[in-house]
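Let's inspect one such protein example.
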Amino acid sequence: MLEPVNIDAESLARLKEAVGSSSAFGGGGLFYFKSKEEQQSHTGLSNESMTCFLNSLMQNFYFSPLRARLYTSWSTCSEEEKERNLILKSLVTLFATMELTKRASVSTKALTNSFGWDASQRSNQSDIHELQTVLFDSINLPNLITELYEFKVQDNLDFTCPCGAINKRSKTQTVTDLQLGIKPGNFEASLKEWESLEIMEGENGVECEKCKKKCDAKKYQCISSLPPILNLCLRRLEFDMTTLRRVRVSSSFSVPMEISIGTGLSTEGGEETKQKYDLTSVMVRSGTANGGHYYSYNRSTVAGDSTWVKCNDSMTTTLSHEEMLSTLESLGTTVYMVVFVKCSFDEVCEVPEDLKETMEREEKEWGELRDIWNRKKEIVDLKITYGNGNGNGGAEVENISVKNTETLSDLLSYLCEKRNLETSNCRLRRYNFSKPGETFTGREDTGLEKLNINGSRSDLLFETKTDDEVFEDFFVDDLLINLLIVDCNVRKPAQLDFKLLTNPVIEGEEGVVYVQAQPFRKASTFSTMVETLKTKNGVGSPAIFYVDLEELKDMNSPILMDTPLSTSGLHLGSVLVYDNLPMKPSEVVKSYESFKNIITIKYNVPDSVGGEEKSVDIDKNLNIADLISSISDGLMDVSEPIYLRRTSKGHQIRSTSLSGEPLTLKKAGLIRSGSVHVEKGAGLGVNEYETVFYLRSKSNEAVLTCNINGDMTVNDVRELCFSKLGVELNIPTAKHLRCHDKPSNKLLRSTSKFSSTSAKKAESRQILLTPLTFSEEIPETSTVVSVKFLVYTLKSPKKPKVINSGTILPLPSSSIPSLLSTCSSRWGNKVPLNSTWSVAKSFKSIKDYSKLKWFTEGPITDLSLKDSDTIILRAVENGEGTEEEEKENFIKSSPWRGNVAINRQVRKERGISIKKYEDGLRTESA
């Protein structure tokens, strides 16, 4: 006998809280409660939005000797230190959980919370190498990182001076990883490139301490000591100096299973010391320079075990040694970081006792929650609707929870018994508010789960009938058709409002019946449909039309009678049925064709009190002029001409195109019923544009609106604006006015036709007016450039004053001196009198102005300028003296400071010292 089942509210609340949201009842919770035995052999890490880079690094740490050292450090910490070092606490807790849990995956939220990350920071992907560097600094156990990861790199400088002095200089620094280039293609070649010899000669030579002369020198670097764990980061991302963007290097890189690497220093016996390392981790980055996905391959830590584990967020997969060899061959273009561990290095890894105790409590809690989850999975929450189920408010609803293995017949018997009803006159079917629900005839003894009665599909309708009635079946693939049945003896077809087809409102419509969602089997034929109409709906001689969007199809051909509905083109929609049709079907179609082109346009009555509105029905194939005429006929009290706008503040609606052709309602976008705004006055004529003028000096305020003929020149427009706004503009002549196309900020040439001033063929134009202190003529062929103005004075010889001077117009055939003369006459009052002027073509994101090519003489063509380019004017009082300051500005604003290799390249090209570069970064960071 069926019995309802329930899970207490407290258990459900615990279940929701465990996953952090109601997703515990969906896919996220499902995986959360999977065990490793069910899913995989190793513990995965869930992706908390975009934390795949963090997950890959944590899996690398877990499978490395770092885990054992962190356990040891934790065991030696005092209780106060354990509570203070949140990152260490989160790391060891995470690793202990991964090692001891039965869960298939665990969360890293506790770890990211210790970083201080919020949800938005977890959604921003970072670089895995940068994260490792920050973590090493944040763990706050310097000896641990030093002993495991730090190796010493020695920079050497050797030279012999002609004076006989032999100089050898070396500097040692410690690092935690080695950054190698990718293009050499393998470890040995990349290491040689890293150690490569650089000859410093000529002006780049090194000064001899003895004779103070510059000597040729050899510069190289080598590794002087090796750590137990060797981190190699491949420079997969580089900064392209041409495009000034970060790009991804897609060259392939071969990763060996083991390497032999020397310190680069000879022993007393004269031979270089080499040590062997085994590959233990490969971190992969797929995607582009701006984003991608990280995952990793890690060697098992079990002694003698040669298997590997692919760690891809929550999912982990075990690979044999041979499978890993094959995988390495296919990873060449995506390898990002590799980790090697010294062959003789081994660490005993034992989870601290306090972490074991914590884990035992958490696993017990997880086991209880898992039991609740499994019970939850076996239960289906049903919503039973009694009555007709038409949503009119009279239906009774009952909620009940049962096991999903219960059969539909058992559920029906239980419900009938509660209501003292016979099961023979009752049934359960799916409940759907908008259409008939699926019936289960012949499947009543099937379990609810197998009938797919669960989740959002768990609403059922309880139906009853009399002994004389028969339940109709409805199947999922049945064709649902809305029927509009018209009795032609009561209502003539010509009187029918076709709007009923799209929005059936049948109350008060005598002789019209609307049947919603009538089901038909797809395999049945038109003749079956006709018989159903006759018997079930009382139709005598039906004439059938199908409404397909805006077309009425005549379906009365005898050929169609034996055609299956599935191949007839019918789908969920409306079918118009006439009983005793007195006219030809073609006349009905013709009538509908006329109807479907009629749209209703609402419009306002100008100057009316209270915003009176009227409407007009019109064929959408007619012209705008016809619409204006129809509206004028309806405005009996308005004698003036009118024009239309889309809205009260919208664009004018043209009655003709720019070339003078009449515009239809369709071309004007009036293809559906809507509204327009009526205004008194003459509308736009042929080749006229409604133009709004804005004044830059008044916060871009609109100051004038008028119709402008497209054949007018920009000079004509300036004269018009000057005549209407002269006092407000406060300029002596119209030539002291500059015009821009406001949307595109395009400068308008004086002799250009107004019709060509905008890139878009819009119904209206927006022009921005700028009053000038000087007269300006802009010929059609002139080149327009923007100006950046640098002024160096004796009071500030190293820090220029930057002036954005606006726009100047170099003459097409003028020389550079004449350009400088023009600029000097225009902006000379802003610089000292004895200044030297020069000009250069600027480039995007330029920081070091000393690298530009500066001109004082020559033709203007030497600058290779085109429209919208930028030139830099430089005015220097008594000489330049600016190069050192420009370098310092470049250092502090360097966009490449995140990549050490690129910084080195940039410093070399810019001639900036390492010390000054690092000082600049430290100053900025502070």
Summary: The CA atoms of residues 482 and 517 lie 5 Å apart.
